[in-house]
Amino acid sequence: MRHLAKEPEIARQALETMWKCRRLEEAVDQLFARGLMHGTMHLSIGQEASATGTCLALRPDDMITSTHRGHSHCVAKGADLERMMAELLARDTGYCRGRGGSMHIADVATGNLGANGIVAGGIPIAVGAALAQRLTNSGRVVVSFFGDGAANEGAFHEAANMAAVWQLPVVFVCENNHYGMSMAADEAFAIENISARAAAYGFPGVTVDGNDLQEVYEMVTVAVDRARSGRGPTLVENVTYRWKGHSKSDKNLYRTREEIAAWQERDPIARFEEAVEQAGGLTRAEIDNARRVATEAVRNAIRAANAAPPAPVDRELLLNAVYAEVS
Amino acid sequence: MAETTTAPTPAPAGSADEIRDMTYAESVRETLGDLLQADPRVFLMGEDIGVYGGAFGVTTGLFERFGKERVRDTPISEIAIVGAGVGAALCDLRPIVELQFSDFAACAMDQIVNQAAKIHFMLGGAARVPLVIRAPAGSGTGAAAQHSQSLEAWFAHIPGLKVVMPATGADAKGLLHTAVDDPNPVVFLEHKLLYRERGPVPRRHYVPLGQAAVRRRGEHLTIVATSIMVGKSLAAADELAKRASRSRWSTLAPSGRSTRPRS
């Protein structure tokens, strides 16, 4: 197993990715606050190690399905920041030509089959994508990201069981950030670890410190290897925390400032930076540089997206976009 | 990588001139077999469609011919059946999933309405969902209110879906071919009382989606019908022609096909 903090190239890549996730979402938060971005969005600030560690365990041609809180999955899977920002700013150059926005960014070229506005909506789709990999012997694996809330949806149950009985190459990555909107996981589950549910389907489940990049990477790597070698799914529960509210209008009435502060002490990026420094993978200057590179990339993406043409408001164009054209 | 291609399924063997007398169910079965034979992207998935042959026997024999990988019996999990169909379609396969009764679509409605129907639009055209959802529909079998509904109006109101309701065995064959070739999700509703209806079915047949078939021309009255009501309308026209022949009543233009008009 690779030691991410020790290897300069991968440590730098991981840091840049996590900082891109963080900086992009900080920018989105500000753009919304200033009224420069419309619609809605859900931020995953504080959860970057889950997306980044998981995608580091994947091959570029592997696939993911994402969630409403999906910016970091998209970045970590290799999306172009400029096209992401363009989508969030409703530009014609955006991933979905401005029609999807934050909740529906997909990038089929990098294997991201899409974020999803329906909790657990992507899980059965991931299982179908995994079935397609089986039927075409592609050797690819599909990761389905979803939150703690999704684990209480029927779609999760049906999809997990189907993947299990068919031993499909899929990994279920549950990002347990402790709240489904305002509903505390403690109150929504009568079990301590969501990963325990895997036993009911007959595949392994593991609970991971989702703010520890190395641990996420290792556990997902084991799960991906298992899936790729035809031994079926795994449920990886990345325990993490979202620093920001559920969505743009959240007043955080269901949790305390102290709780948020305590989790901010466990910042996944700061933890990995420390690990890198200790392991000697990168110097402090190189670590700082990774952050600067990411910050600059996000700044450039916003600049380019702002300069791009807005998504056209054209009735005919939009109506014609509902159905794919029959060839 | 996951981008869907637009290549149509290869044509089945046989000629359009070869007309046979067969039932509606036999026509659907033959067409499914032809599609499985001709195109490795096609596979079937649904409850009891394997050894059992489907609740109405439509898939009888296909499991034996094509094996359990391509004629997949599923757990009783309608969300996963349709959702897995969506995922496989996004990866450029041509899944034909069966809901055992169209009533069970209610269990899978998120995948049908929020996923299958909307993905192409919401992703700005970056993905297609060439999925066919087959389901026996309609009443008349005495199976009570949870196994007898005609839910086509639900589906027809969802932007992104196409709804197909073949009226005859020949229509079923021709429309199933074009439904599988269509890059959009298609809900294909087969009326249970039509399954045993016999009629002429060409060996090879394609019917475009969204175009009405004018079954009879006249001057005074237009009847628009789908599925089983086409035959009933034609029978009614015959009856009316007998009773009111002096008044030139025999005017009918039933349409037996897709409820989704195309511009």
What keywords describe this structure?
heterodimer, A: 327 residues, alpha/beta, Rossmann fold, two-stranded antiparallel ribbon, B: alpha/beta, 2 domains, six-stranded parallel β-sheet, two-stranded antiparallel sheet, 8 helices, 30% helix
Describe the structure.
The complex is a heterodimer of chains A (327) and B (263). Chain A contains 13 helices and seven strands. By secondary structure, chain A is α/β, with parallel strands linked by helices. Chain A has a single domain, classed as Thiamin diphosphate (ThDP)-binding fold, Pyr/PP domains (Rossmann fold, 3-Layer(aba) Sandwich). Chain A has a five-stranded parallel sheet, sandwiched between helices. The model of chain A has no long low-confidence stretch (mean pLDDT 97). Chain B is an alpha/beta fold and 263 residues long. Chain B folds into two domains: 19-202, 3-Layer(aba) Sandwich (Rossmann fold), CATH 3.40.50; 211-263, no CATH class. Chain B is 30% helix and 14% strand. Chain B contains eight helices and eight strands; from the N terminus they run E-H-E-H-E-H-E-H-H-E-H-E-H-E-E-H. Chain B is globular, with a radius of gyration of 18 Å. Chain B starts with 18 loop residues before the first strand and ends in a 20-residue tail after the last helix. The relative contact order of chain B is 0.16. At the A-B interface, helix 5 and helix 6 of A face helix 3, helix 4 and helix 5 of B.
